Amino acid sequence: MTDTMLSSHLARFPFPFREDTYRYSTNVEPARQFVPTEAGGWGEHVLDLDATYEAELTERERILRRDPSRCTVLPHMRVATWDALLTVLGELAATYPGQMSLHRDGTTYRWRNDLLGVKQEFVLGEEDSLPCDPLLFAGSQAQEDIVLLDQREDALWADAGLVTFAADWSLGFDVGMRFLEIHGPVPRVHEERVITRAERFLMRLEAGQEYRRTNWTMTVDRRLDTSTETYPEWGRDRRLVVTDPALPDRLHLRVEVQHLLRLPRSGAILFLIRTYLLSLTDLARVPAWRSRFASVLAELPDDLTEYKGLSHYRDAAAHWLAGG
Amino acid sequence: MNERDGRTDEGLLLRVAGAEHVAADIRMLRLRRADGGGLPPFVPGSHVVVDCGDRRNAYSLTGDGIEPEEYTISVLRCPGGDGGSVFLHGIEVGDVLRVSGPRSAFPPAASAHHHLLVAGGIGITPMLSHVRAARQWGRSFRLYYAHRPGAGAHVAELRRLCGDRLREYTGRADLTRAVRAELRASPLGTHLYACGPGEMLDDVRAGAAEAGWLADRVHVERFSAAELDPGAPFTVTLARSGTRVSVPSGVSLLEALEKAGTPVPNMCRQGVCGECRVSVVRGRPLHRDLYLSEAERAAADTVMCCVSRCLDQELELDL
Ligand code: FES
C-alpha cells in the first residue's frame, strides 16, 4: 500500500472498540451516522467504496469462478433479489453521484458506473436483460457481501446470498438455515440471548428503518476469503504466524460493518457485510488504537477467544501491541 | 430526513393530486409529493396512517408499490365512524395531507406457490396492491371478491387485471361457499389472504381450519400498527437530585430525560442493545423492550428508558 492509500485507509477504518474490554452484544445503532475516530471517521453511508474497490471486486470474481455456490438464491427469493439490486444500485448512485447513476423509464433501468466502465440497461423482472442473476450483478458493483433473509413461521431464514469474503463461515452450508443457526454454537448463554434478541429486533424492522452493527475478528494476511471451504488454505497460518517475525505485518484486525435494512418492495431483510482489514503494524500508527486493542485482546475471556478463532496467536498479538 | 424519498421523521407531506368516486360512498385519492419526486416503494398489502383532522386512520395503498410516483387510497365514507372518512371525503384537490411512511402488515408470503385472495366490500383495497404486484412478478393467484351489485369498488379495473382469475359474488353466503370449496381443494403451497367485514373473516378462518390449514398459511388483514403506541403520560423523580420530569404521551422516557439535562448512555433507541438501562427506585415499569429477560422484568428494578414507560403515574429513578 502506498502512503496516501494507507492514510486514507486508516482515516476511514471503522475501529470497533468503544472500551478497553469487549463482550458480545446486540450492538445495533441507526445507520448513516458518522463516527469520528482518532484517525478520521466512518459511517455516513450505507455502502462504502474505497481504494481497494476494483481489486476486491476482481477478487470476488475470481472466488466466484472457482466456487459458483458462493452466490445461492432459493427460487422464492427472486423478487427479493430484484429488490436488492434496485436498492443497492440506487444507494450507490445516491452516494457517488459523480461516478454512478441509475435512471428509470417505466420498467427499464439504465445503470452507469464510471469507476468500472460499466453501462447496463435492464428490464425489471426480466432475468434475460442482465448478464447474470440480479444478486450477482449487485455484487459486481458493490464492495459488500449480501445476504437476504426471508421472514416466515415467526423466524428469519437466510435464503439467498452472495458471500465471497466470509469470516470463518460459509453461505453454501448456511443457505436455507434459520438466522439463529447461522451463528453456530455460541459459547455462552449470554451470547445466545444476544442473537435471539437480534432476530426479534430484525423481525420488527419496518421499511425505511436502517441499522448497522460492527463485528470483529482477526485474519492472517490480507485474506478476505476465510470461508469454511477454503480452511485448508489458511487454517495452518493461524499456528505458523505465531513464530513468524513478520507477525505484526501478517496479523490483521478484521472488522465487519454490517447493515440491516428492510427491503421496501419485497419485505425481505437485506444484510450487507463490508469487511475491512488493518495489519497490526498499520493499526499501531494510531497510538490510541494500539493500546486499546492490546487491552481488549489481553482481557478477552478464553471461550470468546476460542469462538473467534484467535487462540493460537492472541497472546503473541497482545504482547506485540503492548510494546513487547 | 431521507432526501431521496421525501420521508421525514413525521412522515410524508403529500398533496391531493386527484380525487374521484370509484363506487357509491367510496372516494379514491391520489397523493403526490409537492415537488413531484418519487415516493418510498412498498410491499403489497401495506398501509399508511393518514392524519385526518384530529385523528389518524390507516388506509391500504392500492398500487403495486414498485416505484410509486403517487400513493392511491380508497376511502369508504362511514358517517357513523370516528370522522376520519368523512374528513377525507371533504378535502379537495390541492390540499396537503400528512401521511406516515408505508407499513407492511399484510405481505405476500415469498415461499407461497399460489395466493388465494379473498375480499369483502372495501376489503378489496389491499388486494388491488397484491394483484398488481402479482402480475408484475408472475405470481400465481386467484381473487374472490364479494360486493353489493353495482356498488363494488374498482370492479372494472380488477376484471381487466385479473381476467379469469377473478371470481365475483354478491352475497357473503355465496362467497363463503366458494372459498370453502377452494380451501379444501388447494395444494399445500397455497397461502390465503382475507380482508373484509369481521363475520366474513370468521367464516373464512373457520373454513381454513376445517380444511386443515395451518395458521402459518392464513393471513388476515388487521390494522394493528407495528410501532409502539404513544403511551400514557407520567412523571419521573430523579432520586439523587429530587428533580421531577414529566414524560408526555408520545415522548420516550429517554427523550424526556435528555431534554431535562440528564442524558443516559444509549445506542439503538429501540429497546434492543441494552445501553440505556436505568435503575428503578419506586414505581412499576411498563416494559416494552426486547432486552430484559423475564426474570429481570419481574424484578422490576431496572427499565430500558428508550422505549419503556410506567404503569403508575410516578416512577422514581436512581439518577
Ligand atoms: S438505547 Fe438500546 S436498549 Fe435503549
TrEMBL record, chain A:
Pfam families with a match to the protein in the record: HODM_asu-like
Origin superkingdom: Bacteria
Protein name as it appears in the record: DUF3445 domain-containing protein
Taxonomy of the source species: Bacteria, Bacillati, Actinomycetota, Actinomycetes, Pseudonocardiales
UniProtKB/TrEMBL annotation, chain B:
Alphabetic keyword roster: 2Fe-2S, Flavoprotein, Iron, Iron-sulfur, Metal-binding, Oxidoreductase
Pfam family for this entry, one: Fer2
Annotated GO MF terms: 2 iron, 2 sulfur cluster binding; metal ion binding; oxidoreductase activity
Residues covered by the 2Fe-2S ferredoxin-type domain: 234-319
Names of required cofactors: FAD
Domain FAD-binding FR-type: 9-109
Keyword Flavoprotein among UniProt keywords: yes
CDD domains according to UniProt: fer2, PDR_like
Gene3D superfamilies, per database record: 3.10.20.30, Nucleotide-binding domain of ferredoxin-NADP reductase (FNR) module (3.40.50.80), Translation factors (2.40.30.10)
Domain of life of the organism encoding this protein: Bacteria
UniProt name for this protein: Ferredoxin-NADP reductase
